[in-house]
Amino acid sequence: MMFLLxxxxxxxxxxxxxxxxxxxxxxxxxxxxxxxFSTAATANNYLxxxxxxxxxxxxxxxxxxxxxxxxxxxxxxRQYQERATGFRNYLVTQPSILPMSFKRTFLGMxxxxxxxxxxxxxxxxxxxxLASVPLNGFRVTSILFLFGAALLSFLAGMSLSFFMxxxxxxSARAFAAVxxxxxGLFVAYGLSRFSGTGAIPAAALLPGLGVQxxxxxxxxxxxxxxxxxxxxxxxxxxxxxxxxxxxxxxxxPKNVYARDDLPGIEARLSRFRSYGTLLAKELLDLKRSGTPxxxxxxxxxxxxxxxxxxxxxxYGLNLPIGFNTVFYAAMVGFFGISMYNWLNNVxxxxxxxxxxxxxxxxxxxxxxxxxxxxLGISAAFVVAISWMNGDTRLLWLALPVMVVTxxxxxxxxxxxxxxxxxxxxxxxxxxxxxxxxxxxxxxxLAVLSFTIDASPAFAIGGIALALGALALGTLIxxxxxxxxxxxxxxxx
Amino acid sequence: xxxxxxxxxxxxxGSVPALQGVDLAVEEGEFFGLFxxxxxxxxxxxxxxxxxxxxxxxxxxVLGIDVAERPLAVKEAVGIVPEVESPPSYLxxxxxxxxxxxxxxxxxxxxxxxxxxxxxxxxxxxxxICKDLSKGTRQKLMLAAAFIxxxxxxxxxxxxxxxxxxxxxxxxxxxxxxxxxxxxxxMCSHLLEIAEKLCDRVGILNAGRLIAQGALKDVRxxxxxxxxxxxxxxxxxx
Lengths: 492, 238
Known about the structure:
The complex is a heterodimer. By secondary structure, chain A is mainly α. Chain A contains 22 helices and no strands. In chain A, helix 18 (about 360-390) packs antiparallel against helix 19 (about 395-415) and helix 21 (about 430-450) runs antiparallel to helix 22 (about 455-485). Residues about 80-85 of chain A have low confidence and may be disordered. In chain B, strands 6-7-8-3-9-10 form a six-stranded mixed β-sheet, sandwiched between helices.
C-alpha cells in the first residue's frame, strides 16, 4: 500500500505541476501560509467583535466543505475508468489491466487526497498560525489542537464525499436518501441554533467542531474531548469502510444509444447563426454527460452557504450589517464563475484541433452557453431571496447588478483562463489576477449595497458607476480574448 | 505545383528541440510517407503543418497558405487524422459527422454522411455515442471526418492503427484512388510494409532532423526493403 500511495502522490504532484510549473505550484501553499499568518496576526482586532467560538465554527464548517469538495473528485471515478483507453491515464485505472484490487486502489486514492490536500492547505495554514504567535500571543498547544480538530472535520467531509460517490454508482435512490438525511441534519442544527434551544449539539453536526469546543482554549481537555475524538475517528472510519465496501472490482461501462438530436437543436438555435452548430453541440454534450446536475449543485450550494452565512451573521452574531437584495445579486453574479469552469470540463477538446475552429471561437460559444444556462437561475434566485427577505423594493437595482456582475465575472474568467479554467487557477500568477479582478469589484459592490438605506443617493450613484466600469471592463476583456487566445492549442 | 513546402522548420518545446531545420517539398498528387523512431518529431511536424502548433522558426506553406499566418485557412483546406482517435464523447457517430459537415460548410452533407457511414460499415453504431465506441470504430470515424469534405491534401498520423485487415485494405484502396485522382497525402506511420506499397516518396525523421528523403527506391538504397534501410539509417546515427 505504501508503494502505491507513494506513486499516487507523485502522480498527483506531477499532474498539478504540469498545469503550471513546479515553482509556481509550490508557491500556492506558501500563499496560503502567508494569508493565514496575516489573518492570525490581526486576530486581536476582530476577536473583539466576533467571539472565538463563532470564528472556530465558521472555520470548521469551511474545512468540512473543503473536505467534501476534495472528496467530490471521487465522483470522477467513473470518468477515470472510462478514460483508461483514452489519451490520459491514471494509476487508479490500472486495476482493470493489472492484478490489483480496485478497492485497495480506491483506498489509496483516499489516502492520496488526504495527504496531498492536507499538505496543500491545512498544513501551511497551521504553519502560518504558528508563525503569528509572537504577534498575537496564541498558545502553540491551542494551535496544534486546532489542527487536530480541523483534521477531523476535513476527513469527515472527505469520507462523506467518498462514501456518497460510491453509493451513487450503486444506487441513485440510496444516494438521494442519504443526501436528504445529511442535509436534514444540517437544517435541524440551524433551526435548533436559531430557536436558541441548542437541541442538536455542534458535535452531532461536525465531530471535529465538538472536539474543538472541548479542548483549550475553549474547553478543559477532559474525558469529553477523548470521547468526541474517538467518535469522530469512528465516523470517518465507518464512512470510509462503507465507501470501500461499495466499490466494485468489476466495472461495466454503460453503452449509451441516442437519437440524432443535434440537427434539431441546431435548428432551434438558428438565431445564433454561425455559432448555432457549436452551441447545439455544447448543449447536447451537457445534456448527455449529466453535467447540468453537477453544475446546478455547484451553483446552488454556495448560494445556500451564502444564505446560511448571512443568516448566521445577522441572527447568530447579531451584527448590524444591512444585507439586502443588491448584495445577493452581486454575489450571485460572481458565483457563476464555477459554471464556466464546468463547461470546460465536459469533454476532451483535442479533436477540435483537426477542424477549422479557433480557441477564441469556442470560448465565445461557451460564454453564450453560460448565459443561456445561468441567467434564468440567477434571476430566479435573486427574486426568490428578495421575496423571502421581504426586500423586493430593490429588485429594480438588483437585477442589473446580477446581469452585469455575471457577464463581467465569466468574461474575466474566460479571458484569464481560456478553456482550461481548472488548470490555470492553480497558477499563482493567474490566481492572483483572478482574485484581484473578482474580489475588488465584489467587495466594492457589497460595501455600497450595505449603505443603501443610510445614504441612498451615494450608494445608487456608486453602484451605477461600478456597473459602468464593470461593463466597460467586460467589453475590453471580451475583445482581448481574441488577442490572448488566438494561437492557443486545444487540449492539454 | 508543390502541395506543401517547408523551409528550415524548427519547433522547440521550451528548451527541448522537436524539429530542427526541416526542409521538404511534396508535390500535388504525391503520396509522401514520413517515418521515424518514437519521439522523432513526426506528430509535431504534422501539427505544425496543420496549424495546430506554431513553429518556432522557419516557413511552411500548405496549398499555398502560410501556416503560421493563417492556421485556420489551412485546417479549412485539408483533412487531418490525428494520432489519437478522439471524437467528441457525447455525440453519436452520425452527429459527429453532421457536426463536421456543418463546421466545414459541406454541401450535400446527408449524402456524404451516408456514404462514409456505409464505407466504414458504421450503420450499426450511428446512434452510439462516441465514448462507447471501440478504438477501431473511433478511428474509422476520425478517418470519415477527415475525408468527408473531399480535401485536396490529407495529413494522416498512423491512419491504419486499430483497423482490422479488412478496413486496412479498404483504406489502402481508397487512398490509392484518391492520389490517382490528384489528391496529396502526407502520412506518418510505423507500418513500413503498408507504406512501402503506398508511398511514392518517403522521408525519415530522426531526433527532429530529416535524415533522408526521396523516391522509395532511392531511400531503400541497396537494402532489400524499407525496414532494413530505416534501421540502417536510424541506428547508424545513434
